[in-house]
Amino acid sequence: MKLVVNKTELFQCLQRIIGVIPIKTTIPVLTNILFELDGQRLRLTGTDLEVSIVTFLNVRGEADGSVAIPAKRLFDIIRELPELPVTFEIEKNNRILLTTEKGNYKLAGESSEEYPHIASESFVAQISYSTPRFLRMIDKTVFAVSSDELRTTLMGVLLEVRPNELRLVATDGHRLAKISDRSYAPSVGESKSDALWIKQESGVLQAIMPTKALQMLMRNADQSELLEVAISESHLTFRLGATTIYSKLINGQFPNYERVIPSDNEVTMTIDRDLLSASVRRAAIFANQITHQIRWNLTPNQVTISAEDVEVGGEARETLTTQYAGKAMDIGYNAQYVQELLRHVDSEEVLLRLKDPGSAAIVEPMQQKEGEHHMMLLMPIRLNDAAA
Question: Mind listing the domains of the chain with CATH numbers?
Answer without folding.
Answer: 2-114 (3.10.150.10), 125-259 (3.10.150.10), 267-387 (3.10.150.10)
